[in-house]
Fold this sequence. Notes:
Distance between the termini: 32 Å
Mean pLDDT: 81
Strand content: under 5%
Amino acid sequence: MDPLHRMVTDLIGRLTGPLHFRLRILIFALVMDAIYQLIALHWFYPGEALIVALELAFVPYLLIRGPVNRIAKRWMSRHASSQREHGALRWIA
């Protein structure tokens, strides 16, 4: 496989993989807001549901995901390196 083809394939994989999880969160937020609207307002407003889903579920997810991933990677690397130093890291097959 040539380098350009590999690069394009990797890029497509990186773009479509996280997209699946983001769409799941957006759909979940839309369903939750639709249920709320039907109970509280006795009607469904799709535009309002989309705005609420984006503002209350999708935007916070995007804002929190980056810092949490960086903190988790830093913690995992420190934890793994301290275990390697003390010889406590065991691999179970």
